[in-house]
Fold this protein.
Amino acid sequence: MDDRTPPEIFDVLVIGAGPTGMACAIEAKRIGLRSVLVDKGCLCNSIYHYPSNMTFFTTPELLEIGDVPFPSVNQKPTRNEALEYYRKVAEHYQIDVRQYQTVNSISGSDGDFRVHVTDRFGRVIVHHARKLVIATGYYDLPNFMGIPGEDLPKVHHYYEDPHPYYDLDVLVIGGKNSAAIAALDLWRHGARVTLVHRGAAMHKHVKYWILPDIENRIKNGEITAYFQSTVKRIEKDSVVLQTPQGEVALKNDFVFAMTGYHPDFDFLTSMGVRLGVKDRCPECDPQSLESNVPGIYLAGVIIAGERTNEIFIENGRFHGRQIAADLKEKLSAALKA
């Protein structure tokens, strides 16, 4: 591009192309603003990385955005149905999505932001926007345990498909939904599964139709479980657990550390967004969702800080309307001036 060519300027740039980010772009478009979505992965990247045969815990209508009905023959839709639905929504609203662009830094200020990104080939691109919305979620950053061997290639923090682990010894770490789902799916597809959890039993918030299933598999000895236990270290062919009875060494081929995830707090603070002392909740207006940095809005689970179990697609999808209402008042007036 000729250096003298004026840059393309968007009214709103949304970082994060998940359902919440899409909802923000849709609401901005509805009030006549030009928006663009930027994501380091694909459209709905987090959902894409869910287990391949996963079923949502909620009903289709609670996943809807942009007033587009979510048709499903299932009371609880599957991952693949959700991906197809959000693709159709993006197509319907002709959402401008720049996939596989990693945001490196943000410069400028309210009314004239510059978002510096790198594409998958290492090329540097600068997007210009008057307003920013951060809807990056939290699924990209796992909570590490900080134990020896956690960096071995056999250790995974995401679970997608059971087939590669047939007839192998697999350890699942955790006691919540993701750990229970992974353990059950691996066992049903021929893996020898051991589960370890620091609590005295599976977490009480495990979904009601999953909890008895995992408890019965453990009771029957089909899945081995160590409660009130932790992983002390991970080795190439084994794992060492710290249990109430002392250290236990187990033969092991793969480890799934389902220890949860957290928002990118460093990214927020790099933009000047202040974090609260308690739960690291970012500072933002509860009505407009504008952060303490003028022109930078927050949407989705990132608003809850470390309390990542408070905001889901079901309630985060409405944040776009709140932001659009504020943008309509501020940005539309500025454009007319």
In short: Residues 319-336 form the longest helix (18 residues). The chain has two domains: 9-141+261-336, 155-257. Residues 155-257 form a domain with the FAD/NAD(P)-binding domain fold (CATH 3.50.50.60).
